[in-house]
């Protein structure tokens, strides 16, 4: 499947901004199942400095600096990707989760060594006794890892309420656990804490999810949004992406942009600016199938 993504972020300032420096993680990365065909980021006003680099996690990062007075900033990212749906085995034939933990601790395979970073706590995903307690029913002794991870995903979907008004990007993990509510970012963080608390490698994934309107209805432009989910490493299979917000494994309608330890590693747009006073932020995202009517 081919998907085209348009992501427009606009800041409107009450006072002029004299200088800004920003980092954008808006270009999709290539994976085993995803190939980026085209990707570009346009900035208005035109930046005095613009360059691209690959960060520690292999994500594409665009740096830009605007060195002229401006009252608004608009960043438009457009990309086209080709995605192949994954094929997973029957979850019950995957190895016991304790065996995967041992492999992560003692294995000499390069992928396992690299994945050890994702077994550790991070700024937004500290080790949590509450997360461990929540994970316990899913990770019974000897349970196959994929079966356990799918069960954890399903319980997160059932037990947590999607509530965009409850959390921000800085809401602590334990507050999300205590109130059992939040958004996709929060659900991914809870899953990461639960998996890492067991000694498993789990990473945060940011990207987009294609949504389809009900039959007979037109798709609303700009109505899609950035999305987040988690991935767990299973030896022999690789990274398996799971979406607790929608209780499903990621298929070909999921576009991967960046991976990291938590949201802080993959924020779509962040930076500093001088002036501006207050600002209004608007974001519009469209995900469309290429060649689809």
Order of helices and strands: EEEEEHHHHEHEHEEEEEHEE
Stretches where pLDDT is under 50 for at least 5 consecutive residues are none
CATH architecture annotation of the largest domain: Roll
Tally of contiguous helical segments: 7
Backbone shape? globular
How would you name the oligomeric state of the polypeptide chains in this document?
A: single chain
Number of strands: 14
Kindly state the mean pLDDT as a whole number?
94
- Could you tell me the radius of gyration in angstroms? 20 Å
For this structure, what is the CATH class of the largest domain?
A: Alpha Beta
Strand content: 35-45%
Termini separation comes to 14 Å
Protein name: Transglutaminase family protein
Domain Transglutaminase-like: 176-246
InterPro entries: Bac_transglu_N, Papain-like_cys_pep_sf, Transglutaminase-like
Task: Describe what you observe in this structure.
It comes from Thioalkalicoccus limnaeus. The protein is of the alpha+beta class and 293 residues long. It has 2 domains: 2-83 and 267-289, Immunoglobulin-like; 91-266, C8orf32 fold. The protein is 21% helix and 39% strand. The protein is built from 7 helices and 14 strands. It has helices at 97-106, 110-115, 129-135, 145-159, 173-179, 184-196, 263-266; strands at 2-24, 34-44, 49-54, 60-66, 70-83, 161-162, 181-182, 202-209, 226-234, 238-243, 248-249, 254-260, 269-275, 279-289. Strands 1, 2, 3, 4, 5, 13 and 14 form a 7-stranded antiparallel beta sheet that branches. A 5-stranded antiparallel beta sheet has the order 11-10-9-8-12. It has a two-stranded parallel sheet with strand order 6-7. α3 (129-135) packs across α6 (184-196) and α4 runs antiparallel to α6. The longest helix is centred in the middle third of the chain and has 15 residues, at 145-159. It starts with a strand and ends with a strand. The model has no long low-confidence stretch (mean pLDDT 94).
